[in-house]
Prior knowledge:
The protein is α+β, with helices and mostly antiparallel strands. It is 36% helix and 26% strand. It is built from 18 helices and 30 strands.
Amino acid sequence: MxxxxxxxxxxxxxxxxxxxxxxxxxxxxxxxxxxFSRNISDIFTIESPEKLFDRKLTDxxxxxxxxxxxxxxxxxxxxxxRKNETYFDKIFINEKEYHFSVFxxxxxxxxxxxxxxxxxxxxxxxxxxxxxxxxxxxxxxxHLLETLxxxxxxxxxxxxxxxxxxxxxxxxxxxxENMESFLGLHYPExxxxxxxRDLYLKKRKRIFSNVYADTVPILSKSxxxxxxxxxxxxxxxxxxxxxxxxSGAASSFSVSIIIDDHLWGLVTxxxxxxxxxxxxxxxxxGIFTTLAANAYSSFKSKRELNYRLELNEKIAELKTKxxxxxxxxxxxxxxxxxxxxxxxxxxxxxxSDESIVISGSTPDIESIAKIVQWGLGHTNxxxxxxxxxxxxxxxxxxxxxxxxxxxxxFIEREKNEMLIWFRKEFDEHIDWAGNPEKxxxxxxxxxxxxxxxxxxxxxxxxxxxIKGYSTRWNSRNISxxxxxxxxxxxTSHKNYNVxxxxxxxxxxxxxxxxxxxxxxxxxxxxxLTVMKLNAxxxxxxxxxxxxxxxxxxxxIIEEIDSMAEMMQDVLQLSRAKxxxxxxxxxxxxxxxxxxxxxxxxxxxxxxxxxxxxxxxDVLADKTMLHQVFLNIINNAVKYSSHKDHPKVxxxxxxxxxxxxxxxxxxxIGIPDEEKHKMFxxxxxxxxxxxxxxxxxxxxIVHRIMKRIGGNVDFxxxxxxxxxxxxxxKPYI
Length: 732
């Protein structure tokens, strides 16, 4: 009897499919039949299935005529050019409608069938952009579950997030009232072992309609195992089937959450009774999950960018302090509190030869000296990071609880110069969904008895206490330490060559970023234009009662326009930073009038009113001035458009050697708690999310006004907002 670990179980070649599916495999070159599921005679009229081997479908027109006549089969070469990409159609077989799916995997073309099911409870709108106005992780995933409920609706629906070690945690949940909650529970890596995670990355939607139903064997002309990785009806692992039964589920459905080409998590659904979901609804569930994943990735990227900008500001302030001193140690000591706080540490030790200076909560000097000697003798890395230092070396070095986590940065080893950040022990406990302890049981697979890890029979909360760890040092913490390292290199005169190398590298990166911005604007603009033209042609060719199709195509056109606008804004942001500035005396009135008229047509309501008063000349760059007024006036008209009497006033006044323009609206206003981040890139206020926008415009304005020697500020309350633009007065 063989013993098979969970991660060794060959779940991609189960030798069977589920009973809702029907499968035929043909050779990609000869088009002859090489395998099929034993149940195909249930839907196709076949007297002797064994005679199908090495024959073509066209040899049996009376049995497979509906397949032969389908467009997807007549154009099989075109549809199967790309491996592992599935194409869908619908055909009638003996007066019943079936989904017909085709994909190529290695040397075989798979023809898969399942009956079309009508979902009378399906309640879904055509609005797909709601995910992109949410910038809170929990709210986003809850919104996804609410949306999927209208499509698939299982007894329990969860978002399951993978941890770095392969284990997982339920982070949001939607369930029937009579079901036990799994929210917040952890699951060990063995519940979804590596080969299962690999399959979820390849085949992103997986359904088990009835875990108690018998599977259907695959009949093959050879003894080779058929790889069913991309088959929608692939049979389940006996271990996974038992796992679902133990959890009280008779059916499950999951959709992979893919972020940056990695398996971030799963939407996993369970039903107490058997339940099958129509293929079309499963595909739509996959689309909504992809939209949510993209929205999550987008707002995480925006937050990360904002953090980087804030970190750069803090480092710039530190640089000013560092440059006041001739010795690095003096610079570090003066700024020790700020350096400690940058990676969110509890304490900091500054070491230089025999000198040790501390800040915050640290171990005693004797313990720090031991850690220094350990670091010099046990690691060659410039930066060493650990959250389990107390667990790993606590007994050896006789450490206290405030050394659970450390980051050591070796400034210069020969002089014993280093920084050590400390974190205290985190009183951590993990609530597991049942005892994760592994047990062995006997299972039968393909007629062979094997010993495998048995799924647990209880999912009651099992609490495990974790000792000797600090909270995890995340990517932001590590970035902060790298920023301190770069600051030390930059401000230390002995590192001139290193500084020059870093500056050259930074210059190269900036040039690449500029090139990237222009690529977005120009190279990607062409396919967008083609897409828009094709969509418009398709819209023009629609006839008859096709209102839903028109709505969908118009939605596509709107999204193309939004993408083009965002690309143009990214280009403008780059230009605002690097373009040559040509200051001259400029008249503003015609520019303001033209922008205002266009804004009323594009963003305003029929009642929108723009009042233009005095418009004195300003000293500015012509192109940049237009961009400033364009963004500010468009925003004023847009954000006041939902009022009963929307009004915008524009007025310029002289004040000594400056010209001050005030653009005021009676719109939604800016909440007090968000005023501090108005000019940060990609920032969007909560009350502005019902309006279209990408959060780039005000960053462009802020950058331009600084470059032309002016300033931008604002005043806002519940009655509206006034943006104040300060320009230099033209020379007489």
